[in-house]
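Record type: monomer structure entry
Structure origin: computed from sequence
Chain ID: A
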Amino acid sequence: MDHYHLWFDLAPGVSDVAFADTLAVYLEHLKADGRMHSWHLARRKLALGHPALREFHLDLVFEDLAQLDRAFSLAAARAGQVEGLHQAVNSKVTGLMAALYRDFPDAVRVRGEEQF
């Protein structure tokens, strides 16, 4: 699995619960369309966390990079229903930081041939 991690803050005046609901509509649409495996939204607790990271953390999980690319291609088209869903989320966040990780070891890793 590939994990696209996003850290962000909400824009001033944005309701946290309303944002979470809007995000769920968008991401569940991608999931139902087969463009995402799963997702998880988390919020920093007790002000604990690295100072560079934002208040919210979103983990978008994809089966592989091809599925991730299909999701990005749909969003990048900036058209149709997905554009409205994406804009409803994107317009409410600020300070976005992103990273891409993979499960490890994953299915493509050959075992027993490590060299030191």
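Annotation 1: The CA atoms of residues 46 and 60 lie 24 Å apart.
Annotation 2: The beta strands are 2-10, 38-43, 56-62, 93-102.
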